[in-house]
């Protein structure tokens, strides 16, 4: 097929897709992107790559990974895939901060397509269980912002934080060595949290450049994509291209993140102190932020920017449809209490949202289902999937 024929075919195809999808204007953006992105011409005409369905998302703490987790659950649900989830006694995080172990995986979910829960990453053990062609991704956040978030979230649970006079972050960062308690049970939330989650030694001296280099090289080799919280939507667009997913697969509601962004920012002085204290995390972040931007450069920054705009437009459209133009209401009391994970003291928890009574008016079945699922927090969704998968497993094993 020559270029001209391909072009004509692609125009004909796109036009008919536009015609079909315009009937429900939420989906208009899918067509725009499919036809418009200059880096990916003719993608519907040439044999389209199938979606990649074996994906391990290594969820790190306090990085806004929950949006990603929910998205992965929805992807699994929508494509009838198996999610790897823990045994009941390991709650929702494979008994973190223990290492990830096969013995903590529900026996019916040992061979799975999707992994998206919190865990302490043991690369060999995860790779032993997940299919050979699994694509690994994770997410990192600017270490100053991460530490600020961890400090307030875990303040009442870490002696290292509680022992600071006045419980102030500035106080802690003025002399972290004085307050840090490396052997307390949750000390990984008080230093180099990402390093710890990714399976390395949070207390290793950051001056050991050989260690740092080897760590970065290993992460680079393991992860096809390291998403960056500060550029979440750009990361998603890169992810979509990496996995050949469509834009509905990466749709999420920016409900929790908005709240996040209204918090006041740390002063530059505290940011730099937090980065020094979390030096291993900082090496990781600087390296993988640069790496993300190289990937964006390779895809074409204009294309990525355009898809980001379309993603946000689709989020707004869907949100208006689901909430009927009303402000989303948080569901503090409405979500099944037994499915709540451990919550820190205080009011920092992240709950789901309630849809208005008449939300289904004028919506297709498909959109209604999307509204119902997209508002669920990741762990609630995970628990639902866990129950249905476990039930299926039990049914098979009783015969
Ligand atoms: C989902 O997968 C199960 C087997 O894992 C199969 O029995 C079932 O028919 C599938 N459902 C759909 C809708 O594809
Ligand atoms: C991430 O990298 C980009 C490109 O180099 C840079 O412009 C940006 O400031 C970095 N972001 C952060 C939060 O460090
Ligand atoms: C849904 O109900 C609200 C009031 O609760 C009303 O303002 C809105 O117009 C209704 N929407 C539809 C599509 O019925």
Offer a few descriptive terms:
mainly alpha, 2 domains, Rossmann fold, 399 residues
Strand content: 5-15%
Shape: globular
| Helical run tally | 17
Number of domains: 2
Query: Do you know the CATH topology of the largest domain?
Result: Rossmann fold
Assign a percent range to the helix content: 40-55%
Write structural notes for this entry.
- With 399 residues, the chain is mostly helical.
- Helices cover 50% and strands 5% of the residues.
- It has 17 helices and 6 strands.
- Helix 3 runs parallel beside helix 17 (378-397).
- The structure holds 2-acetamido-2-deoxy-beta-D-glucopyranose (3 copies).
- The site of one 2-acetamido-2-deoxy-beta-D-glucopyranose (NAG) has 5 residues, from loops.
- The site of one 2-acetamido-2-deoxy-beta-D-glucopyranose (NAG) has 5 residues, from helix 14.
């Amino acid at each position: 097929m020559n270029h001209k024929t391909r072009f004509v075919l692609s125009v004909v195809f796109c036009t008919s897709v536009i015609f079909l999808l315009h009937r429900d204007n939420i989906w208009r953006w899918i067509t725009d992107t499919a036809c418009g992105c200059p880096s990916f011409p003719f993608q519907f005409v040439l044999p389209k790559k199938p979606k990649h369905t074996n994906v391990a998302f290594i969820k790190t703490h306090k990085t806004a990974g929950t949006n990603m987790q929910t998205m992965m659950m929805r992807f699994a649900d929508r494509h009838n895939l198996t999610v790897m989830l823990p045994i009941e006694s390991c709650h929702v995080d494979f008994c973190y901060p223990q290492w990830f172990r096969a013995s903590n995986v529900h026996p019916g979910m040992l061979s799975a397509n999707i992994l998206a829960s919190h865990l302490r990453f043991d690369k060999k053990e995860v790779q032993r269980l997940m299919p050979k062609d699994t694509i690994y991704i994770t997410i990192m956040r600017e270490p100053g912002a991460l530490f600020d978030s961890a400090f307030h979230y875990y303040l009442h649970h870490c002696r290292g934080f509680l022992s600071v006079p006045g419980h102030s972050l500035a106080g802690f960062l003025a002399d972290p060595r004085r307050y840090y308690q490396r052997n307390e049970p949750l000390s990984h939330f008080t230093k180099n949290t990402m390093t710890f989650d990714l399976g390395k030694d949070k207390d290793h001296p950051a001056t050991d450049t050989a260690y740092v280099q080897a760590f970065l090289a290993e992460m680079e080799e393991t992860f096809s994509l390291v998403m960056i919280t500060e550029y979440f939507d750009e990361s998603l667009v890169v992810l979509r291209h990496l996995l050949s997913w469509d834009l509905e697969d990466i749709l999420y509601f920016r409900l929790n993140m908005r709240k996040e962004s209204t918090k006041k920012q740390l002063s530059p002085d505290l940011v730099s102190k937090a980065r020094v204290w979390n030096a291993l995390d900082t090496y990781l972040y600087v390296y993988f932020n640069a790496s993300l931007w190289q990937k964006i450069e390779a895809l074409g920054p204009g294309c990525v920017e355009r898809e980001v705009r379309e993603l946000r437009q689709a989020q707004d459209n869907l949100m208006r449809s689901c909430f009927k133009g009303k402000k989303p209401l948080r569901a503090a009391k409405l979500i099944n209490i037994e499915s709540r994970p451990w919550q820190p003291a205080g009011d920092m928890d992240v709950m789901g949202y309630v849809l208005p009574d008449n939300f289904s008016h004028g919506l297709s079945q498909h959109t209604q289902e999307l509204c119902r699922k997209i508002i669920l927090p990741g762990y609630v969704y995970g628990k639902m999937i866990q129950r249905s998968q476990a039930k299926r497993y039990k049914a098979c094993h009783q015969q």
